[in-house]
Amino acid sequence: MSIIANRPLHALGVCDQVAALDAGEVSSVELTQHCLDRIKQHDGSLNSLICSDASAALAAAAAADANRQSGDSAPLTGVPLVHKDIFCTIELPTTCGSRMLESYVSPYEASVVSRLASAGMVTLGKANMDEFAMGSSNENSFFGAVENPWKRTAVPGGSSGGSAALVAARLAPAATATDTGGSIRQPAAFCGVTGIKPTYGRVSRYGMIAFASSFDQGGVIAASADDCAAVLHAMSGHDPRDATSSPEDVPDWPGALAKGGGLSGLRIGVPEEFFADGLDEGVAVAVRAGLAEMEASGATLVPISLAKQSLGISAYYIVAPAEASSNLSRFDGVRFGHRCDNPVDLADLYERSRAEGFGAEVQRRILIGAYVLSAGFYDAYYKKAQQVRQLIASEFDEAFQSVDLIAGPTTPTVAFDRGAKSDDPVSMYLNDLYTVSANLCGLPALSMPCGFDQDLPVGLQLIGRAFDEERLLRAANHFQQITDWHTRMPEVA
Ligand code: GLN
Predict the structure, then answer these.
(1) What is the pTM of this model?
(2) How far apart are CA 180 and CA 320, in angstroms?
(3) Closest ligand 1 atom to 182 CA
(4) Architecture of domain 9-263+445-487
């Protein structure tokens, strides 16, 4: 039976593309050309990519086809993808969405990029993002806002807004992304696609530009959980070049999903705090309907309480800026990136290069970070936030004694309009209400589409025990076998 059947090539996800390539129904050059055509046709308005290189992509695709012909292929040989522009690449510039790195070309490559290239994937280009991954709407990119393909006046979420928007618009079957406080899951939710942030340490941070190093984690956005599993498997694993990379073995997630299996016996904790004040009614309805589907498939829904959950935002927005203020001190106008014209002395060089190179939100984070780390305020803010982080982690540990997964909404609302929150940082930060806890505790978490509210996609979040991505992926994969939300595609005219 034909894999492609009557479907357009962009309706094929990662696994379908592999199957079609294996069956000889299509070549990597054809798949890659199809993506490049769609990028050309639709990305002018979406603005989901910062750069692409058609000839390099086609050359890589031709090499992939040749490797397949000679029987020398890896699991994903010939499947195209886009990298979030936070991952260093040698052939393409790496801007991190910032004027600071506007024309920066890295002398080395991120481990994620090398691993996916070794797995045979073809790089199409680099995805737009909030500057230095700080934001929840992609409005903080130096390269302009990204449109949500479901509603052109709405934001795609952030910081991996380009990755989510381009997968939703089917410009590529998958994109890499990063998640420090929700930046994979929140844009995946806003754009109606699936995104997974694995356990901290699962994916190497080598060559991934640092925002808040104790939270930052690479992952993937694709249409479905099985597509995410395939790409995540190829990018995970120990890397001696990242001191926080975990030595844990990477299970065969694609193999586990292929075995199938329902949800019977699965205990899903549903925290009451995830459905409290601040959650839009339409989002709650869609998420509860999704949970009911899982229950009908044999899962047991267990009401739980995570009382410390509400402290997550405050703790995150102290510790993450603190780490950012330290990480971003390297951008001094001397070693990397933007340098101001005609500095009068060294202090002027530092000050003007940073004032010109960093946008407003990045400057705000650096100021907050420097403040909470300063001698007079360290105990009151930074130290206390780290203690809260511990409390939240203990609460999760306790919850996971009696449940296998925790579920709820990914975001309190569906995608909002551009400009609606840009003058109010605190209301922007509240987007991350349900996502930051997993980052504070390093836990794996996934968002998958579970319905619509006001004609915009709603995301259902699953959080798992550390290193238990398999259970997340299996639950999501099963959900996607009994529902079709993940197959819905926006009209991109
Ligand atoms: N929205 C959050 C922030 O602005 C999370 C960003 C991220 O995960 N990179 O910090």
Answers:
(1) 0.98
(2) 8
(3) 8
(4) Alpha-Beta Complex (3.90)
